[in-house]
Specification:
Length: about 280
């Protein structure tokens, strides 16, 4: 018995294309591919622009630099607005109160005792210690060489620093000035200059030269402050002189008078301020 035909025939296009017939929601046939289509690669996402990042970093660097400059400027202004700070910078860079000359062979104690020397003269100012350090570095003096002094004195604290510096380098001190051919002539060293002179490992006493001492002047807002400050200064000077090997009698002579007292050669020798007298 022959089967009845269903009446459904696949079109040639379905058969040839390899697609299976499917029914739609109302029975309509739709075509579903046997193999899903290959996905196209997504287009690459472009990198974010770097120009904005660089600009932000540049602005941040400029801001930090500006803050640093502003901070330094404010601090410098505050420092220079103080009279003592301005005096320090002025002397150090613009107008030194001391002068120096390097002598290849200073004739002191006879030609056979000639030695390299740095001759220093003038008033001891608020930046004289830094100034002397630079001059000594330039002079390249060795231990046993000479620092020749001629000064009316000046800043007490700077003088003690200068003396410490001379002692640390093992230098000898003397009071005098140089003339032709390095010959040493008598001069004077007073007030704070005596503290610089005390820094020498050996302190030559040039015949005719003079050492002058006096009470150091202090200032305070009241009588109590003034007394305390005077005692502090005297204690500091006594401690310094003791470390330099000088008798405390020098400090007693300083405290005894406000006017300069010129010490005789024998007196200075007895105080161990002069350690070796020499003829000019």
């Amino acid at each position: 018995m022959a089967r009845a035909s269903t009446g459904i025939v696949l079109p040639d296009s379905d058969q040839s294309s390899g697609r299976a017939p499917t029914a739609g929601p109302w029975g309509a046939r739709s075509r579903v591919p046997l193999h899903p289509p290959t996905k196209q690669p997504a287009s690459p996402v472009p990198n974010p622009p770097r120009v904005a990042v660089r600009d932000r970093r540049h602005l941040l660097s400029v801001a930090i630099f500006s803050l640093i400059v502003l901070g330094v400027g404010i601090r410098a202004y505050r420092d220079l607005s103080r009279p003592e700070a301005w005096a320090y910078w002025k002397e150090l860079y613009l107008q030194p109160s001391l002068a120096s000359s390097l002598v290849a062979k200073a004739d002191i104690g006879g030609p056979s005792h000639g030695r390299p020397a740095l001759a220093v003269s003038g008033k001891i100012g608020p930046a004289s210690a830094s100034w002397l350090r630079d001059r000594l570095n330039e002079a390249h003096l060795a231990a046993g060489d000479l620092v020749l002094l001629s000064s009316p004195g000046g800043d007490l604290n700077q003088a003690m620093i200068m003396g410490e510096m001379i002692r640390a380098r093992g230098l000898v001190t003397a009071v005098g000035v140089t003339a032709n051919a390095g010959r040493v002539k008598p001069s004077y060293c007073a007030s704070a200059c005596v503290l610089v002179y005390a820094g020498g490992t050996s302190r030559l006493g040039v015949e005719g030269s003079a050492l002058g001492v006096h009470r150091f002047v202090t200032s305070g807002s009241g009588s109590t402050d003034l007394v305390a400050e005077t005692q502090r200064v005297e204690g500091a000077v006594l401690n310094y002189m003791t470390r330099m090997g000088v008798s405390s009698a020098v400090v007693e002579a300083m405290s005894a008078t406000r006017d300069v007292r010129w010490l005789g050669a024998r007196e200075a020798l007895a105080m161990n301020l002069i350690t070796k007298p020499v003829a000019p």
